[in-house]
Every structure is written in C-alpha cells, then in structure tokens.
C-alpha cells in the first residue's frame, strides 16, 4: 500500500506542477515532466509481473539493472563481498537467468575462465559426436524392496522448506515441477498448502524435528506420517541425516516466526520456540536406521525411501552399508549434500569448515556402495551448487545418478543473491514471510521460468553427453573428466582417484580402506 501511495503522491505533485506551469511560470514545466515520468514508471513497475525487484521497489529498483550493465567490475565486487564464501559466479548466475527467461545463453568472445589454472576441469568430447535424444532421461528410484518405484528426472528441486522460502516461491517451484515432470523436495519444514496447490511430484523430507509427523513432545508420529506419505503427490521419502551447509547442527525456530500458517504446516504450537535436535530420536545406530527405513516404506504404502547426508566419517557410512548387508535390506537412494551448499539459517563457521565437499562425498558414497556390492540397488543423488548442464554431467561422472538444485532454482524464481534471507526482508519476495514483499513474486511468471530453466539445462546436459560420443548418461566414466593439476599436467578422474570394483570391500579391501572397513560397525555410529 505504501508503494502505491508514493506513486499516487508523484501523480499529484506532477498535476500540481502542471497547474503552476499554466498559471505562474514556464519553469514549472520541467518539474511537471520529471514528476509525470517518475509516476508513469512507478505505475508500470507496480503493475508489471516480470521483475520482482521493481514490484517491491518501483523506480528505485531500476538502479539494480543499471548496475548490472556495468560489467564485470560492479558484479565482481558483489561476488567478492559475499558473506557465505561460496556464491555462484556471475557467469553461472547469468546462465540460470537467461535459461529461465528463455533467452539465448551465448555470449561473444568465448570463455572467461583461466584454462591454465590449477583445478580447471574439462570433459572429453568425441569426433563421433551424436545427436542428443529428444526425450529427457529418468532414473528409477526403488529396488526389489520397493513395490511403488518412482522415475525421477535428472535435475530436480532440492530441499528448501516453507518458512525458509515464501509461500509464493514454494508454489512457483512446485508449479514448475508439475509442468516439467520433475521432483520437488519439500525440505524438512513439512508439506504446506503451497506444495500441494499444483500437484507437482514431491519428495517429502523428514528431519530430526519430524515436522508434519511429530508428537507433541517432538518425536516421530507414525499415524501422522502415514496419512501424508500416502498422498498420491508424494513420490518418495527422504530422511535428512545432515545438511551440507550445517552438518551435525539442529535448528531453532523462534516462537515469533511460528505463525498460524507455519504452526499448522509443521504441527507446532502457535508462537512457541522449537528446537530441532542435531540427531534423530527415532534411531541411533545404523541397524536402527535400516529398520526405520523399512518402517517408513511400509507406512507410505511401498514408496521409495532414502536419506540425505553431508558426508563426514567414512567409517560411519561404511557402518550403514554393513547394516544393509546384514539385514539384506537397502535404502532406495542416497542424496549426497555437499558442504558448499548454502543456507540462511546456519553459522558461518559451519558453512566454511564443516562437512565434505560434494565431489569427495559423491565419490566416497559411490565407492562404498560399489565395494560392498550394493551399488546396483541404491541410486545416488547429488545436491550442492548444481546449476548448469556441465554440473549435471560432472556429478554423474563422479558417481551420481541424478541431481538436485536449490540456489539455482531460487535464481529461477527471482533470487538476486541479496543475502538477506535471515532478515525477513528479501527484496524479491523469495525468502521472506512478509506479505508486502512476497506479493512481488508472481507465481505464473516464475513457475514458467523454473520450467524453462530445468528443461533447457537437462537438454544441455544431453547434448554434452551426445558430443562425447555417447548414447546415454550410463556410459559416462571417470576417464571422461579431466582436471589440471599443475601448469603443464592434466589427469583424468580415473587416474587421479581410486575407484573400487563391485564387492571389493567384501573380498579383498584395498589398503586405503582396510582400517575403516574393520572399524565400521552396524551397531553404532
């Protein structure tokens, strides 16, 4: 309302200046023209639905787009001034914006990256390049223990809760997922009305707070879980063991933020502060985790059940593998969350210093499952700064079967990396519960952007695989990804890293794995 009042005042002042120009002096004509121009621009800003910044900040918001034209100096300043230490670079962010808007993603003059820098990576193309398939690939979640498998897309919306994101942002993400046929992870904040409005496929994430399926004292409630898990819209269940941006840390939801809507969605008392424990209370050992997986699969009616974690101890993950072997029961999928993932609700020390980066985590999980003979029964997802077609291909080479994206999907719904997520003053209505700000995020427009971004990114990944002379993502191998290790030397991932053979840990553990394999215990983490 304040925005409209300001624009109305501009129109009134413009009319006043026009009256003065007609009656007193011609000098007032200039003031009238300027005021009418500002009022007209402000009115257009408030009525248009394409730019959330302009809807929230009429007239003044144009300064942001002006600064973006001054490239690369101004944008590089903001990138280097980032507080979370791992922002997306300008090229990646712009690529997301352009794909989301349906504009061309090409720029003149070629790459801006230093191809001679240590750590630079590139993929091996082929002179036997193929034509990319028209239909996108999918990955089946659900093995022999899962009677209701789900075919997940290669690129999906990663875990972001209602509460962390606005209702409009959640609604736009789910509407885009429904249109594009890809999955939308709910995050640990439960299934909100905004998740359900457009009937997009959901992966319901169950965190240590058991939001949406908790008892009064915060423990797991089987009946509440079964009621929601059996919804047709829920395609899979993901147990959140840890999060990349804050592994080993629970969360605090201040009572002031527990509104009526949040309370109803999460199953909380209105206005009471809620503390999520750093670990689950439903299980405390690898064996108990496997039993809990069986319980959730049964309660959900046979849907795929997996878990998400930021990898920490190799011993602990091997303990989970031993538990699955001993019980002859496997999880349907594991989502590896890299420590480079972001959050608006975690200490900077955790973001910068805790947890394993996605590349190392993916290879560890892939090798552990392969070495224990379980890899063909468990699919692996990759989550952590996946934003481009190249990211998808690289993560599959490193051990993933499918990918998840959070921040890039936020870009698609209008995030500008203002890094005000924790203040409730997000300027584009993505990470705020302030109705005056969330109104700026137009759901139909942003849903279309999410759909276009996902579709074009997957198409780009398919074309990359075809350019490598391959017919499918299944044919990708570590030998096809190269990394520069010094000024004159490059090595493939097959040469740089150890890759276990199926069942190798069971038959003859390599020296580098032997002590961890012996120490791993299915009865304790």
What would you say this structure looks like, in words?
The chain is α/β, with parallel strands linked by helices. It has two domains: 2-81, no CATH class; 138-249 and 285-517, Aldolase class I (TIM Barrel). The protein is built from 21 helices and 15 strands. An eight-stranded parallel beta sheet has the order 4-13-12-11-10-7-6-5. It has a three-stranded antiparallel beta sheet with strand order 1-14-15. Strands 2-3 form a two-stranded antiparallel sheet. Helix 12 (314-327) links the parallel strand 10 (305-309) and strand 11 (333-337). The protein is globular and about 100 Å long.
Features:
11% strand; alpha/beta; TIM Barrel; three-stranded antiparallel β-sheet; eight-stranded parallel β-sheet; 2 domains; 525 residues
């Amino acid at each position: 309302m304040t925005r409209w009042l300001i624009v109305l005042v501009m129109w009134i002042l413009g009319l006043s200046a026009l009256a003065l120009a007609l009656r007193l002096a011609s000098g007032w004509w200039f003031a009238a023209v300027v005021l009418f121009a500002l009022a007209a621009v402000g009115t257009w800003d408030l009525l248009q639905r394409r730019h959330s910044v302009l809807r929230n900040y009429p007239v003044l918001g144009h300064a942001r787009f002006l600064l973006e034209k001054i490239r690369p100096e101004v944008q590089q300043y903001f990138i280097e001034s980032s507080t979370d230490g791992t922002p997306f670079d300008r090229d990646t962010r712009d690529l997301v914006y352009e794909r989301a808007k349906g504009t061309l993603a090409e720029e003149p003059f070629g790459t801006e990256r230093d191809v001679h820098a240590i750590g630079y990576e590139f993929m091996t193309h082929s002179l036997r390049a193929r034509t990319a398939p028209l239909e996108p690939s999918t990955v089946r979640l659900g093995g022999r223990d899962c009677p209701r498998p789900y075919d997940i897309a290669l690129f999906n919306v990663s875990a972001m809760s209602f509460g962390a994101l606005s209702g409009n942002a959640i609604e736009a993400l789910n509407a885009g997922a429904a249109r594009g046929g890809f999955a939308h992870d709910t995050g640990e904040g439960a299934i909100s009305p905004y998740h359900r409005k457009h009937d997009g496929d959901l992966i319901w994430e169950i965190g240590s707070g058991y939001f949406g399926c908790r008892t009064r004292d915060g423990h797991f409630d089987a009946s509440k879980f079964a009621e929601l898990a059996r919804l047709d819209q829920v395609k899979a269940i993901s147990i959140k063991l840890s999060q990349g941006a804050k592994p080993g840390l629970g969360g605090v939801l201040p009572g002031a933020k527990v509104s009526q809507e949040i309370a109803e969605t999460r199953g909380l008392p209105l206005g009471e502060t809620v503390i999520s424990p750093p670990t689950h209370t439903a299980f405390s050992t690898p064996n108990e985790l496997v039993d809990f997986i069986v319980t959730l699969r049964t309660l959900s009616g046979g849907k795929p059940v997996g878990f998400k974690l930021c990898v920490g101890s190799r011993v602990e993950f091997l303990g989970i593998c031993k538990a699955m072997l001993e019980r002859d029961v496997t999880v349907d999928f594991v989502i590896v969350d890299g420590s480079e993932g972001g959050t608006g609700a975690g200490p900077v020390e955790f973001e910068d210093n805790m947890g394993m980066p996605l590349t190392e985590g993916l290879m560890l999980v892939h090798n552990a499952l392969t070495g224990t003979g379980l890899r063909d029964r468990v699919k692996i997802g990759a989550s952590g700064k996946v934003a481009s077609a190249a990211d998808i291909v690289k993560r599959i080479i490193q051990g993933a079967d499918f990918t998840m994206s959070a921040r890039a999907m936020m870009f698609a719904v209008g995030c500008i990396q203002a890094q005000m997520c924790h203040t409730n003053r997000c300027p584009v209505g993505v990470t705020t519960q302030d109705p005056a700000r969330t109104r700026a995020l137009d759901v139909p427009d942003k849903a279309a952007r999410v759909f276009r971004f996902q579709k074009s990114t997957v198409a780009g990944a398919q074309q990359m695989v075809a350019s490598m002379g391959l017919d499918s993502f299944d044919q990708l191998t570590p030998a096809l990804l190269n990394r520069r290790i010094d000024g004159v030397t490059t090595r493939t991932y097959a040469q740089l890293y150890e890759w276990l053979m199926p069942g190798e840990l069971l038959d003859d553990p390599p020296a580098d794995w032997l002590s961890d394999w012996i120490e791993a215990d299915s009865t304790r983490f």
